[in-house]
Amino acid sequence: MSQNVVGVLLVLIAVANAVKVPVTIYYESLCPDSAKFITEQVFPAVKGELRDYVEINWVPYGKSHFTTQGAEVIFDCHHGPNECYGNKVHACAIEHIQANSYQIEFTRESLTLDFINCMMKAGKNFDDNVYPGARCARENHISAWENIQQCANTTEGSILLKKQGEATMQFQNPLTSVPTVVFKQQYDAKENDQAMSSFLNVVCKYIPQPQPKVCAALNSAVATTVTPLLAALAYLLVRFF
């Protein structure tokens, strides 16, 4: 067996045995900052090589509030009633999206990521003022749109969104900023800020060796930048002290 084949097998075994990095994202369906973070940072990173290394827990609630009147749950959302509906759609999608045995290239996680990314890209700019749920489902191989839509328009959607609200309030009440990202169930304000502009950098810190190529390349780039700086600092120390 050639060394190349052995190397490939070792990488495949490492991926299969890897414990995924748990990442929780607290966001809002119509929040511009949430959309920017998810579509520009999270999606490109997780859709690529990190697909098998990251497990995302989506929490679509943000700075919303809810009250109960008997069996009815009433929501007041950060960006208005349309966001309340959008948050319900996201909560229902997270609940109802399932992988199909005849589409082995798609997992439940990857389908959910694709759907949420599509919805966040649409933002408030719906084509012809048509809500993008059906289009995003159709474009991303999701057959459960009717179930998601029915859920969002019934008591089930309210119950699911209420659970997302309870999860958010258990984490922070009120939520300090939207979006907020938590790595490995431990919130770190500095990491949260860093992730907003370089989600990949933070995730790679938590992935053990052997790391995927994208993380290895990132580490190499950092080392290439840091080494000359250290050399310059050493020169200055020797020269002037």
Any overview of this molecule?
InterPro entries: Interferon-induced_GILT. The chain crosses the membrane at residues 216-238. It holds the Pfam family GILT. This is GILT-like protein 1. Keywords: Glycoprotein, Membrane, Signal, Transmembrane, Transmembrane helix. With 241 residues, the chain is mainly alpha-helical. It folds into 2 domains: 18-207, 3-Layer(aba) Sandwich (Glutaredoxin), CATH 3.40.30; 209-241. 58% of the residues lie in helices and 12% in strands. It contains 9 helices and 5 strands; from the N terminus they run αβαβββαααααβαα. The chain has a 3-stranded mixed beta sheet. β1, α2 (32-47) and β2 (54-60) form a beta-alpha-beta unit. The relative contact order is 0.15.
Strand/helix succession: HEHEEEHHHHHEHH
The top-level CATH class of the largest domain is Alpha Beta
**Over all CA atoms, what is the radius of gyration?**
21 Å
Strand residues, percent? 5-15%
Give the overall average pLDDT: 86
Q: What would the CATH topology of the largest domain be?
A: Glutaredoxin
* Unreliably modeled segments: 5-17, 223-238
Family: Belongs to the GILT family.
Signal peptide: 1-18
Transmembrane segments: 216-238
Keywords: Glycoprotein, Membrane, Signal, Transmembrane, Transmembrane helix
